Amino acid sequence: MQALAGSDPSPALRLTLASASPRRRELLARLGVMADVITAADIDETPAKHELPRAYARRIAREKALALSADESHVLAGDTVVALGRRILPKAEDAQVARNCLELLSGRRHRVLSAIALKAPDGTLRERLSETVVRFKSLSASEVEAYLASGEWEGKAGGYAIQGSAEGLISWIAGSHSGVVGLPLFETRALLRSAGFAIA
């Protein structure tokens, strides 16, 4: 990555993406940005007692960015949380968890909070948060079972992936589609540009 015109052009800015998610890598590429290093941050993502969804998303993104040591690189980290009211829905590690999430979301509005954090080589931290409201149609038992059979829910917050067949079950969305996928592009672009990255 190169610095923006008017800033110090040397050395070139480097970027580490603190995520093993292929979705975040693909979304970042839509901005014309390729990370120099891609590595997952190993942190405890257990919500604190009484922690609210917005605070939790921000904290996890921040901790992921801070967890990686990259002295000559900016570190970009993100976290996406599906929230039903004050409740943080889990990542679906098995079909029963995914079924529980889908049944809770059926016919209701929920929020998707996508936080990003960018740590500069000097330790300076920049942060942004995207909040999107999503509504599922009322799901029949057969629709739930068909979605579970797709396997798209595996490892996904709230038990669904909007970039797959679940999008056909969503009646409306207000906010950032890319944020629901896992990296809000408007906020990410603004954050990287503010740090001096050359993005059109």
From TrEMBL:
Entries under NCBIfam families matching the protein: maf
Molecular-function annotations in GO: hydrolase activity
Record keywords, A-Z: Cytoplasm, Hydrolase, Nucleotide metabolism
Function according to Swiss-Prot or TrEMBL: Nucleoside triphosphate pyrophosphatase that hydrolyzes dTTP and UTP. May have a dual role in cell division arrest and in preventing the incorporation of modified nucleotides into cellular nucleic acids.
Organism listed in the record: Novosphingobium rhizovicinum
CDD domains (alphabetical): Maf (cd00555)
Cofactor(s) it depends on: a divalent metal cation
EC number, as in UniProt: 3.6.1.9
Name under which the protein is recorded: dTTP/UTP pyrophosphatase
Site feature: Important for substrate specificity: R23, T80, Q163
Pfam name, any one: Maf
Similarity section: Belongs to the Maf family. YhdE subfamily.
Enzyme class: hydrolase
Catalytic activity entry: UTP + H2O = UMP + diphosphate + H(+); dTTP + H2O = dTMP + diphosphate + H(+)
SUPFAM superfamilies for this protein: ITPase-like
Active site per UniProt: D79
Protein location: Cytoplasm
